[in-house]
Amino acid sequence: MLPLLAVLQGIMRNVKRHKTKTETEENDKNKEEKKKAERPSVRRKVKRQKHEPHIHWDRLCLLVFTVVNVPLLAWNWKHLKQKYLEYMEPEYEFKTFSFDHLSALSQREMNMKKYAYNYSTTHIDKRANLSRQEFTDVYDGAWPVIITDVVPKWGAYHWSKQFLLKYYGKDRITMKAVDGRLDNAESLALPLELYFKHAHEGTFRRWTYVEDELFIPTRPQLRRDVGDCEYLKEDYFQLFPEEVRPWNAMLLWGTPHSRSSLHIDPYNWTGTNAVIKGRKQWKLIPPGQDHLLYVKEGKMSGFPLECHKYNSPVDLYDLDLNTYPLVSQLVTIEVDQLPGELLIIPPGWFHQAYNPEETLAVSSQVMNSVNYRVVLEEILKAGNVPRTGWNPSLPYSSPQEQVQEVMSRLPKQLLKRGQAVTDDMQDQIQNGMKKKPRQQKRKWKKSSTWSQWSSDTSSG
Ligand SMILES: O=C(O)CCC(=O)C(=O)O
């Protein structure tokens, strides 16, 4: 700033000097011209000179100075500020981050003393009229909880199979069909009306599970019916560009015996699961036991913005201890979830759900000030943005600003890719396999009849 002011002063001084010099020169000239004008031969020449435009050097200099220096000044200010911050502290690097579950648990134990509630430290509490503060103090990021008084207020709570059939019967929904063990699954896109007819069928070794990530988000009326939860209103996923924002509100509609894999959610977010009809049984694994779960490294989720996938090949509802002997050491927490109940699962907890009867549910997610750093870690770990070259003041800014900063650094081609993943997925569902998927791993077969799928799998 100071050097620039000095330059400005210098220029002004020169302009002044130039001005006085020009004035004296002009006076002398005028005198001479007067003399010449007395001679008729030069009278015409003098007249012409009188009409020539007069250049205001001072104003011109000031204009040039302003045009050149204002942008320079703006750039310099930013640059100097950056240099100052770099001098005070070197460039910030996102080091690998891991959530400290033990300290979250000990904090929870301390906070529990503030409230007159008989908390379980080995099971899952079912709560109503829970205050936001108590949720933050005792459950968020630390321990799963079932909320019983939220879902009954949602429009979705009143969905029936008939309602879905009436308005969306012809639309295709995506599902996995299992014949044998859980890992022998096939992906299908079938008309809802076809699934509707068979949704009550299912045996322990042969079942089907609608796990459709786009069905609700792409139908505004259904999306509106999925309400929110007072405790999870803060959601930084809303700061993600739309092209790479994780799909939200997955439709889960399973035949009896259908089940999810044993997994941690994408981005390691805080997950929610609302049962609308039927019943779910859950096995939840407190963190720190990943070494007992045979999780394969390096698997990717295929989400619009890539992240690692943490799936265990173990089926806790169909144990194979010969192949996975370490599982016998696992500590699991079990809970049954009834219609109208909302389960909230903290990051880092492997979980698997089993539908003992036909069950309709919706799962969602949030990124908030408790888990934002875990989610950012997954984004960095997947190589979406480099870990180096960040503004040193970043760690001191708010979680929201940090998320915004990371999002602003996503390369344009990632946004394009994100949109392409969603478009491909929709194309495949609507048009079968006509369009070749780009970078996407999920592929749905377009069977048009249930028996076609059944005969396909039985012959295979
Ligand atoms: O209800 C289910 O099948 C489990 C869903 C689930 O775990 C999830 O959405 O992450």
TrEMBL record:
Span of domain JmjC: 205-383
Gene Ontology CC annotations of this record: nucleus
Biased composition (Basic residues): 433-446
Biased composition (Basic and acidic residues): 21-41
Residue ranges with Low complexity bias: 447-460
Record-linked InterPro entries: Cupin_8, JmjC_dom, JMJD6_ArgDemeth/LysHydrox
Residues spanning the membrane: none
Name by which UniProt lists this protein: Bifunctional arginine demethylase and lysyl-hydroxylase JMJD6-like
The gene coding this protein: LOC106154044
